[in-house]
Design goal:
Blueprint: H1 2-18, E1 20-26, E2 28-29, E3 39-42, E4 45-48, E5 54-60, E6 64-71, E7 74-82, E8 89-90, E9 94-95, H2 102-114, E10 118-119, H3 122-127, H4 135-139, E11 145-146, E12 156-157, E13 165-169, E14 172-173, E15 196-202, E16 216-222, E17 229-235, E18 238-247, E19 252-261, H5 264-267, E20 272-290, E21 295-320, E22 325-354, E23 357-385, E24 397-429, E25 432-457, E26 460-461, E27 485-510, E28 513-530, E29 533-534, E30 538-550, E31 556-568, H6 572-575, E32 589-604, E33 607-623, E34 626-629, E35 632-635, E36 641-657, E37 660-675, E38 680-682, E39 689-699, E40 702-714, E41 737-749, E42 765-773, E43 781-788, E44 795-801, E45 806-814
Parallel strand pairs: 1-8, 2-9, 13-16
Antiparallel strand pairs: 1-5, 3-4, 3-6, 6-7, 10-15, 11-12, 13-14, 15-16, 17-18, 17-45, 18-19, 19-20, 20-21, 21-22, 22-23, 23-24, 24-25, 25-26, 25-27, 27-28, 28-29, 28-30, 30-31, 31-32, 32-33, 33-36, 34-35, 36-37, 37-38, 37-39, 39-40, 40-41, 41-42, 42-45, 43-44
Length: 815
């Protein structure tokens, strides 16, 4: 009887053991110290850690359970576990103190949202697929940011142009070359993604601490290394290597990046057959030395060399309608040889007077030496294509409407030296903050322009529109041959600028509602000396205001409004007109901004999402009208226009897939200008509709296999006008821009997947994958080439199509 009783007691225990297993581990904090008395609980079962942080708990088999790790001083962690067999499961989480920077992070994030600043995760930037992968490529998925040129990193924001965007790296303004005409000449963006820590972006209504531009601010912070590591990226488009580390008892930190890029993979996919030999090289370094807790010295340096050799051979483009198709065939001879050498250095000293008062002094110098030399002859035939399906010559050219040639020549050289020194300070007092700064800048530009174009049609040189025509072949023409376009100028320009700002920030409460104020004012005074002629000293004042409120509601919402008078004093590019003539008295373009927006954070599918909506209006005066040819901007330099822009931007971002941020953006824009009171016409950047998707995904059963999709749709922009023509007569638009880029990669190793043995143990990170650019092989146009019909004198705008479908292989590693 006694043995039977013991047997009956043993049966339940045996059955329980068969249906459970053991979960055990060691719980530590971020300093690797064990934590005692951590509660580990699921359902009604629980335990706690001992003095060494160890725990052990029995869990059921084949059943998903939720384990909760909690402690009064640390943030709670939740873990979902399903035990498949009786093998012991080990899980050793690291708990983070509740007070460890938690309040500071929350306040900082809210203030950025209140000021209309978008923070972009650097991991998202690195994963965004695009021909020019990087920060700018990610920005172009935003609603108010547009660019129809995948070979360029330049972008338009809410109706502005490329020259209206501020770019800062560690608080230092950076510049782009002056003479670049096309995106394929650009090479590399200044921003090295592998060196970036923080990315902040404002599409308008920004604070007074940022400079005097009309459209946007991109504020980049390079990181101070915390470890020694080397990162290498390689693909068919080029490669990069980045080294980072700390030395001298961690007082000296350095991060240095070397990059090389070759765009021939893209250029060879275009309709123009070429010999293309580009060399785009870039070296950047960021050094910091901590003399003490109060004083830090840093240096940011950059060397960039773009060596661009281009030899077009032929081109064949069909355009027009199905019923009336036309074909342009061009044969080229000659070549283009350009070189862009850029040197940049900035030395900064940060001094912490006390916990509430900091000062930063920066001295920087930027030098660009640019050569643009080309002689390219083109012989073209513009013909009608046989569209009769039953014809023996279907699809072939049956009648030539225009036969001719043209010769383009340039020997352009530019040397620009920009030197500045600035002092900025911040004073904090609880929830109040004062920011102030002053800056002196000197710009010296030497520009030598030797450029002309001769156009020939059926053997007769075409004279410029403002010259007396001829009646060949019926009457002999005995005058000299005059180029259709000719510029021969030597511009020596010096610009001195004094600028300063002061602004006040406050965070307070109105009843239980959290409110944010920002009041600021900027001022700049400048004078220009060009070709021995002095301009009058000009001064602009730019007051700016921001207000935001976060209501004490159950729903997480924030409302903001901002505005002010923004002004953009002219750079050298804006002083030079179409013919290379200099107008030293060009005024600053002015714009009254009004921006209102809302952020709504919510949970969907038990995951975080945020909907951002902004409406804006700009009233512009003293506008310097311009035309765009690829990425070259040519100004009228006369302040003879007024303009306006208004629109709506919306972006929904969140975890459409658990653990991966994606977003969908939609924008509407309308911008028009009135030149010399002739009436309103669309501005060159009038891109009405913008739709963008950035999507990240992974295979559920194989989470290391990831996919990235970048999809953009832009409605067509005005296609420009021929030289010497009235833009009011040419208001047709290019076709809509549609593009989809897809990337697939596999993560062999990262922070969550480390190996202690084997060849993968040498890597901190290792990823390899394929990128398919323009996956649907859509023909997108960037500009028009204008060809004359010799019979009707009509000028046709033949689209210059961008790149086709391209496959790229890429590998990234860190060790």
């Amino acid at each position: 009887m006694k043995k039977t009783f013991l047997f009956l007691l043993f049966i339940p225990s045996f059955l329980i053991a068969q249906k459970t297993t053991i979960l055990k581990g060691t719980i530590k904090n971020s300093k690797k110290e064990p934590i005692e008395n951590v509660s580990i609980k699921f359902n009604n079962t629980g335990t706690s850690t001992d003095i060494n942080g160890n725990y052990s708990i029995r869990i059921p088999l084949d059943k998903e359970i939720t384990i909760i790790y909690s402690h009064v001083s640390y943030r709670t962690i939740t873990k979902f576990i399903t035990a498949k067999n009786r093998n012991i499961i080990r899980y050793s989480p690291t708990l983070i103190l509740k007070t460890e920077k938690l309040n500071e992070i929350v306040v900082k994030d809210i203030r950025k949202e209140a000021s209309g600043i978008e923070s972009i995760d650097i991991k998202t930037v690195k994963n965004t697929i695009g021909p020019n992968a990087g920060v700018e490529n990610t920005l172009m998925t935003f609603a108010g940011v547009n660019n129809n040129n995948e070979l360029s990193t330049q972008y338009n924001v809410r109706g502005g142009n490329f020259d209206e965007n501020l770019v800062y790296v560690n608080g230092i303004e950076v510049y782009r070359p002056f003479l670049i005409r096309s995106g394929q000449q650009e090479g590399l963006s200044f921003i090295n993604t592998n060196m970036v820590q923080n990315i902040n972006f404002s599409a308008g209504g920004f604070q007074a601490k940022y400079g005097d531009k009309l459209s946007s601010v991109l504020d980049i912070t390079y990181r101070k290394p915390k470890e020694t590591a080397t990162t290498i990226d390689a693909s068919l488009l080029g490669g990069s290597a980045t080294f980072e580390g700390q030395f001298l008892n961690k007082k000296l930190s350095t991060i240095t990046g070397v990059r090389y890029r070759d765009n021939s993979l893209f250029v060879n996919s275009k309709q123009i057959e070429t010999n293309f030999r580009p060399k785009f090289t870039d070296v950047q370094t960021y050094l910091t030395y901590d003399f003490s807790d109060k004083f830090e010295l840093s240096f940011l340096g950059n060397f960039s060399l773009n060596d661009y050799n281009y030899q077009p051979l032929s081109r064949r483009t069909r355009f027009g309608t199905v019923a009336d198709p036309l074909e342009l065939v061009v044969f080229y001879s000659g070549q283009e040889q350009d070189k862009y050498l850029t040197l940049f250095g900035a030395l900064s000293a940060d001094y912490k007077v006390n916990d509430n008062f900091t000062l930063k002094t920066t001295a920087s110098r930027y030098n660009t030496q640019e050569e643009e030399h080309f002689d390219i002859a083109a012989q073209y035939n513009l013909g009608e294509v046989d569209s009769n399906i039953g014809s023996e010559n279907f699809g072939e050219v049956e009648f030539s409407q225009g036969i001719g040639s043209q010769l383009n020549h340039a020997r352009n050289d530019l040397d620009a030296l920009i030197t500045n020194i600035q002092v900025r300070g911040t004073i904090k007092n609880n929830d109040k903050q004062w920011d102030f700064g002053v800056k002196y800048q000197k710009e010296d530009i030497q520009d030598r322009i030797r450029e002309w174009e001769v156009i020939d049609s059926l053997g007769f040189s075409i004279r410029p529109p403002h010259h007396t025509g001829n009646n060949q072949p019926y009457e002999a023409f005995e005058g000299e041959i005059t180029p259709y376009q000719s510029i021969r100028k030597d511009n020596n320009v010096a610009i001195t600028r004094f600028s300063g700002f002061v602004q006040f920030n406050q965070r307070s409460f109105w009843n239980d509602h959290e409110v944010f104020y920002n009041l600021g004012i900027r001022a700049q005074s400048w004078a220009v000396t060009g070709n021995g002629v002095d301009s009058k000293n000009q001064t602009i004042i730019s007051p700016r205001l921001q207000f935001a409120i976060k209501p004490d509601w159950e729903k997480d919402m924030l409302f903001r409004i901002s505005g002010g008078l923004y002004a953009q004093p002219p750079s050298y590019r804006e002083l030079r007109d179409f013919n290379g003539d200099l107008n030293v008295d060009v005024k600053a373009q002015k714009s009254i901004h009004f921006v209102t927006g809302m952020d709504y954070s919510f949970a969907m599918w038990d995951r975080p999402f945020k909907l951002t909506t902004e409406m804006y209006y700009k009233d512009l005066s003293d506008v310097n009208a311009y035309s765009i040819d690829n990425v070259r901007i040519r100004y009228r330099a006369d302040n003879a226009a007024t303009a306006y822009a208004y629109g709506l931007d919306m972006r929904l971002n969140g975890e459409f897939v658990p653990g991966s941020e994606s977003w969908v953006s939609l924008g509407y824009l309308k911008t028009e200008e009135n030149i010399n009171n002739q009436g309103n016409i669309a501005r060159p950047s009038d891109q009405r509709i913008k739709f963008g998707i950035l999507f990240q995904d992974y295979v559920p059963n194989l989470p290391d296999l990831k996919a990235y999709l970048n999809l953009v749709y832009n409605s067509g922009v005005p296609g420009g006008s021929p030289a010497y023509s009235d833009p009011y007569d040419f208001q047709s638009r290019l076709r809509d821009y549609r593009r989809a880029d897809l990337g697939v990669s596999y993560v062999f190793a990262d922070a969550n997947k480390q190996y202690t043995t084997g060849w993968l143990s040498k890597f901190k990170e290792l990823t390899a994958g394929l990128e398919l650019f323009n996956m649907f092989d859509i023909q997108n146009a960037i500009t028009n080439t204008w060809v004359r019909d010799v019979y009707s004198k009509t000028q046709y705008g033949i689209p210059n199509y961008m790149t086709g479908r391209v496959l790229n292989f890429k590998v990234s590693m860190k060790f």
